[in-house]
Amino acid sequence: MENLIQSLKVQIIxxxxxxxxxxxxxxxxxxLFGEGLGLDSIDALELIVLLEKNYGLKIxxxxxxxxxxxxVKTLAEYISAQKK
Amino acid sequence: METKTLVALLNKAFLHTSNIISPLGFTxxxxxxxxxxxxxxxxxxxxxxxxxxxxVVDTDLLDNNFSIQTKSNPKEFTRLEKMCILSVQDIMRHSxxxxxxxxxxxxFSTTKGNIDLLENNQSNxxxxxxxxxxxxxxxxxxxxxxxxxxVVSNACISGLLAIIIAKRxxxxxxxxxxxxxxxxxxxxxxxxxxxxxxxxxxxxxxPFDKNRKGINLGEAxxxxxxxxxxxxxxxxxxxxxxxxxANHISGPSRTGEGLYKCLQKVLPVGxxxxxxxxxxxxxxxxxxxxxxxxxxxxxxxxxxxxLKGYYGHTLGAAxxxxxxxxxxxxxxNKIIASAGFEEQGTSVELNIIKKTENKKSTSCLKTASGFxxxxxxxxxxxx
Amino acid sequence: xxxxxxxxxxxAANCLWHNGKLISKSAETAAPSTILEDSYKSLNLSYPKxxxxxxxxxxxxxxxxxxxxxxxxxxxxxxxxTAIVLSNKNSSLQTDLAYAKTMRDxxxxxxxxxxxxxxxxxxxxxxxxxxxxxxxxxxxAFNAELLxxxxxxxxxxxxxxxxxxLHIDEKGCEGFLYFVAKQPAGEGKxxxxxxxxxxxxxxxYIN
Lengths: 84, 383, 207
What we know:
The structure holds 3 protein chains of 3 kinds. Helices cover 54% and strands 0% of the residues of chain A. Chain A is built from 4 helices and no strands. Chain A has helices spanning 2-15, 41-55, 65-68, 72-83. Chain A is globular. Chain B folds into 2 domains: 2-227, Peroxisomal Thiolase, Chain A, domain 1, CATH 3.40.47.10; 235-382, Peroxisomal Thiolase, Chain A, domain 1, CATH 3.40.47. Chain B has an 11-stranded mixed beta sheet with strand order 5-4-6-7-1-8-15-14-9-10-12, sandwiched between helices. Chain B has a two-stranded antiparallel sheet with strand order 2-3. In chain B, helix 9 (284-296) links the parallel strand 9 (275-277) and strand 10 (303-305). The longest helix of chain B is centred in the first third of the chain and has 17 residues, at 79-95. The model of chain B has no long low-confidence stretch (mean pLDDT 95). Chain C has one domain: Peroxisomal Thiolase, Chain A, domain 1 (3-Layer(aba) Sandwich). In chain C, strands 1, 2, 3, 4, 5, 6, 7 and 8 form an 8-stranded mixed beta sheet that branches. At the B-C interface, helix 5, strand 5, helix 6, helix 7 and strand 8 of B face helix 4, helix 6, strand 5 and helix 7 of C. Strand 5 (150-152) of chain B pairs antiparallel with strand 5 (134-138) of chain C.
C-alpha cells in the first residue's frame, strides 16, 4: 500500500501540473479537495483520466469520485480493492 | 431636436435581414417555422465510433445546396465555410448593400472555426485555413468585401458580443452596414472535449429542467445585417455589454456575478422585458447560475426560454442564431416554448415558457455566458 | 483630455520588459517554456495555478503582472470598470494541437479547457479580480489601429482597459500588454504617461 501511495503522489503531481510540489509535501490522509491541496473540478476530471490511463479503472458515475478522491489514501484503497 | 435626443437617435442600431443555416432549415423563415412546429435538430450521430446526441446539418444537403446556389466546387471549401457562404449569400440577396463600399464590414464570430481540419484528411484545403482569420478572409474574399473581416473569438458569448461590437462601431460612425456571422461545426474535437468534462448529455438536452444532464453540441451558421436604418417592424439593439466573473475558467460564478452585472447595465431601472431568451445550456451549473442572476435582477417572473433544446449548443453561432429568434419572436408576436423543459430544476423558480403561442412583446433580453468567465447581455426592442 | 497608456510590458525574444526596463532575461536559445518560467521567477510570483495553465495563459498572466501591479494602475483604477481587450493570430492553436494528441486515447479535460483564446482573459481576470468588458480579436498580425479604436469606444463608458497581443507558435512566444486609462488626476504623474494613439502603441510594440 505504501508503494502505491508513494507512486500515486508522483502521478498526481505530474498529471495535475503541481510543479512546485514534491511527493513528501503531500500528506496521504489530507483532503485533496477544498482545503489540503485545494484541487478543483477540472483536477477531479483529470484524476478520473489518471485512473483509467494508469490503472484501467473507469468510474461510472462522476459523483462516486468524491469519496474515491477524498485523499491519496482513499484513492490507493480504491485501486487496491479493484485489483482483488 | 434636443442634442441628446439627436445623438441617441444617431446611435441607434437595428437588426435587419437575417439567415440561419442549420438542421432545421437553410433560411430564417424555415428555421422559425420548424421550431414553432416543435421540430428539433438533435439526433444520434456517430463520431469516432461513439454515438452522440448532436444537431448536425446533412452533408449531402449542404453540398447540393452549395453547388446549386453558388455554382462553386464544394470540395474547395470546408464544411464551415460552405455553411457561411450560403448564409451570407442569403443576406446579400436581400440587403442590396454594395460589397465594395468601404463603409461595410463583415464580423465573423466563431470559437473553433475549421477545427475539423485537425482530424479529417481534407487535402484540398490549405493547412492555413485552421487560422480563424484565414477562414473569415476566404468568406470575405468570396463576396468581394473591401474591408478586412473582424474576427471575434470569445468562447460562447462570441456571437452576442459580435452584435454588441457592431452596435458600438455603428454608434461611432465607423461603418454604415455590418454583417455579423456566427458559426461553428460539430467535430470530434469539441465532442471529445466536452465529453471529457462530463458536460454532454447522451439524450436530448433539457435546459432548466430538474433532470438536465448536460449539453448537446449543435452546428449552425447564423448571419444578420445590422445598420442604423430604421424600418417598420425591425428590431433595435437598445443596449449590450459584457462582463467577467473573475471566478473560474470553466465554471460560472455561483452567484452569477458577471451576468448580474450585465443585467444591471443593459436594463434601465425598473424596466421589464417581454421575455428572456437565456443561454440555458442545460448544464447543472449554467442554468442554476442564470436563474440566480435573473432572480437577483427581479426577472424571475418574466417569460423565459432557452433555444438549446432545439439546436443544441451552437457555440460561436449561438448568440447570433438566438438573437435572430428574439427578433422574429418580437416581429411575429410569438413566444417560443423552452424545448426539453418539464419540471423546475433551479433553486429559484423561473417562468419557463412551456408552450409556443401567440403573445405580443415589445422587448426582450438575450443573455450568454462562456468559458473564461465571460458573460454578455443585450436588450432588444421592437421598433 | 484624451486617454493615456500608463504602463506596458513585453515578452519578446528571450526577455521580459516592463516600461522599457529589463525584468528577466533567459538564455538566447531558451525554449518558450523556459522563458516563461524564468519570467515567473524574476517576478517573484507565488501562484501555484500558474503551472496548470497553458502557454498562452502563462504568457498573458506574466505580461499582465507588472502592468497591473504598477503603482498608478493599482492605486487609481476600479477593477469593475476595467476592460480586457486582447488579440492574436493563432487563437489557442498550440493548445488545440496538444489536446488533439490526447484525443484518441485519453482526452485531457485540463487541456481542453484551454482550447479557447479568451481563457487567458479569464486567468488575468481571476488573478486580479477584473470584472469589466472582454473582447478577443483574431488578426493576421498585430493591429494597433483595431486595439486603439475599440478601446477608445470602450473608454467612453468604462474607466480603463488592459490591451494587447499574445502570440504563441512552435517557434516562440511574443507578448505585449498595456494599460490605458482616462487621464488620471494628479499633474505630477501625467508626464510619465504616453498618449493613447495607434502610433504610440505601435512604437511601444516594435521597440
